[in-house]
Design brief:
Length: 84
């Protein structure tokens, strides 16, 4: 099961690159988003607003996730989640 999840995470991250505007330098960020998505995480907290908590690309990543049968987690900063 763990090997299947790893492959799925890699596949989803690859699709994030192929079908969105994520730059190649965001490889680790794409894997982080994909892992949270595959494992059904509700919220992905981050201070990385350039690639992870970026509203400009959120819609496209959500569409790609749905094509794979997953729901993209809400990606936000801790301050956004806590209401600051």
């Amino acid at each position: 099961m763990a090997a299947q999840n790893k492959k799925s995470v890699q596949d989803l991250a690859a699709q994030f690159f192929a079908r969105s505007s994520l730059p190649l330098k965001a490889k680790v960020d794409a894997a982080h988003i994909a892992a949270a998505t595959i494992h059904g995480i509700d919220y992905l907290l981050t201070w990385n607003c350039k690639h992870i908590a970026n509203a400009q690309i959120q819609g496209k990543l959500a569409e790609i996730s749905l094509d794979f049968g997953y729901v993209l987690p809400i990606r936000c900063t801790p301050n956004e989640l806590m209401g600051d």
